[in-house]
Amino acid sequence: MVTYEEGSPVAVQLSTGLDPETLSIHVTGNTETRVLGSMGPGASGYVFRPLIPFTAGQSYEIRYKEKLLSTFKVAAGQAGSSPELLAVYPSKDTVPENLLKVYLQFSQPMQEVGDAVQFIEVTDKTTGEEVDIFLRLESELWNKEHDRLTLWLEPGRIKTDLIPNREKGLPLTKGHEYEISISGSWMSARGMPLRSQVRKGLYVTDRDSRKPDINTWKILVPRAGSKEPLRLQFGEAIDAILAQETLAVTSPDGDVLGGHFVLSEQEEEIYFTPVNYWKKGVYVLNVDVKLEDLAGNNLSRLFDSYMPENVPHGPPELFHTRRFTIR
Predict the structure, then answer these.
(1) Do 13 and 43 meet the contact criterion of CB atoms below 8 Å apart?
(2) CATH number 2.60.40.1220 is the correct assignment for the domain at 214-326
(3) Contact indicator for 261, 286 with CB cutoff of 8 Å
(4) First-to-last C-alpha distance (Å) of the chain
(5) Which helix (H) or strand (E) holds 242?
(6) DSSP sequence for 152-210
């Protein structure tokens, strides 16, 4: 029996005496990929709660090892509004030939399908051919809310010292135009489709073989006594998700300031607006070294690099810092 909360299918009760460790839930017809979730004791057996609510209108199978025990179907009900694809990152259309990642940000949690790439088609418009550039993973890279998917371009084809690169070349070709098409049939966790197809164009330029350097960033300082935003101009597009997770500002007293960062200008600039008014003094911008550009180069190393094991090196840096003064 399926349990609903506020119209959303959030659990299924299993009446069985079998060891719960041997049980698994699958979308009907997909025996290889389990629905992720947790199994716990229930009133008459066990209760399985999926990580993402079951898809409205979808049929599921309960399996013991590889054997089918039973099936159930989630009621269609009132699934709510259709999801939207809010953003495709990088948002700019010009990217380096060694682009590493693409993010899809949705307005709602999306369904667990096991192979999201089946809803994504990439066309090399320069040649007119459909191409396969994204890495297929056994476990897709969704965030906790299941509304943002990370798609990796094949790293083995990007690193110049690896066999896939020598045999197949880079996923993207310099000078070519591409179109990423996201199918309108992709459904939310509540069973509502995107409805309309979404397209994103890319034009591929030179390889990016330089690490981000915070000493080259332009810092536009606000006035003391105001809540004007601090503006950081990177001089290049930065990873949209990491940019909002790796930056912090420390006050003259050494405290981390409360506030929020907002990206703009196609991820080439970010604004920090504090909770409290700026005071006069020397502040510190702290940047985690894992911040990356579009090619996966972070503050401490290039993505496409090789370091011999016999080369001694000290403890890894965790942060890069830069001071600025508010008057």
Answers:
(1) yes
(2) yes
(3) no
(4) 65
(5) helix 240-243
(6) EB-HHHHSTTSHHHHHH--SS-TT-EEEEEE-TT-BBTTS-B--S-EEEEEEEES----
- Give the whole-angstrom CA distance, residue 33 versus residue 300: 37
Q: Token pair of 26, please?
A: 């699958």
* CB neighbour burial string for 170-193, b if at least 16 within 10 angstroms, e if fewer: bbbeeeeebebebeeebbbbbbbe
Beta-carbon count within 10 A of 59 CB: 12
Work out the pLDDT band at 307, boundaries 50, 70, 90: very low
Give the model's confidence band at 243: pLDDT under 50 very low, under 70 low, under 90 confident, else very high. very high
Mean pLDDT of 255-269: 93
Contact 279, 251 (CB under 8 A): yes
Interatomic CA distance for residues 13 and 28, integer angstroms: 17
pLDDT digits (tens, 9 = 90+) for 75-105: 765 556 789 999 999 999 999 999 999 999 9
d(C-alpha 219, C-alpha 74), whole Å: 53
- Cα separation, 174 vs 172, whole angstroms: 7
Task: State pTM to two decimals.
Answer: 0.76
What tens digit of pLDDT does each residue of 185-203 get? Answer: 998 887 788 978 999 999 9
Return the CATH number of 85-205, one of 2.30.30.100, 2.60.40.10, 3.30.470.30, 2.60.40.1220. Answer: 2.60.40.1220
Instruction: Say if residues 287 and 255 touch (Cβ distance below 8 Å).
Output: no
| Residues 164-192 pLDDT 10s | 899 899 999 999 999 999 999 998 887 78
